[in-house]
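Weekly puzzle thread! Below is a chain. First person to post its structure in token form gets bragging rights.
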Amino acid sequence: MGTKINIIQSKKVLIPNEDEEVSQKFTQIFSKKYNIYVDYETEYISREKDTNHSNEFHVVAKQHDSRKSLELVSDQLLIAAGRIPNSDTLDLEKTGVSVNEKGYINTDRFLETDVNGIFALGDIIGRYLFKHNANHEAQYASNNILHPDKKIPVNYAAMSHAIFSSPQVAGVGITEQELKKEGIEYQKSVYSYFNTGMGHALEDRDGFVKFLADKIKGRILGCHIIGTDASILIHEVLVAMRAEDNGGAIDNITRTVHIHPALSEVVARAAAGIDRK
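Winning reply:
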């Protein structure tokens, strides 16, 4: 007998910080697998022993708009409450190193704190809370510590992320909702996995690649992927965006010959939908 899973999300879609089309598709897919309750706020949680002396959790939540009440009973409970820095346990006042209002350590573009010779990197400085970013910053910190006369500022261009769910999600750059909010003109191209040879063979009917680019030079503003191996496919886009010869233009992808029927063809075909003037 399968485990029944209930998911309570405090916004109207799952993974709301992703591009709007990706988060909508992700929510749709997960709604077919599990009981999803969006736009609810948890009001009460209790734990009791059932007749078999096992833990039983009681959760009461209410919907924001209608205030409709929801009650769930489960033998397991996961609370994803986010993360906060632990700088308050480090006695930083003894060093003179300062933190911002959220508790993250202040550093300059070379990762040096406001105390000469003390550097910080990774989650504790609060820029990009990813392990791959910490690895990236470590290279700069090492150089800047060992060569104080030849310090190099950190290049954060095309910092990507991935969600290792099923299906996977990966993204880099600006989302469409952010472009709309800022009033930035853009063009977009979306291509389905299933319309490529490998995507069809994998029967991935939900996956797609979405490009957002400027209207003049075809410079990549963002790329958002949901589907099989999204965390791998995004890397071609990262290389293209960091290319210095033509400012991260979509041409870096469209001019590349892609192996058929490799799944990376879906990236190439999505890129081909962007106009290059």
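Puzzle host: Confirmed. Bonus trivia for everyone else. Residues 131-146 form the longest helix (16 residues).
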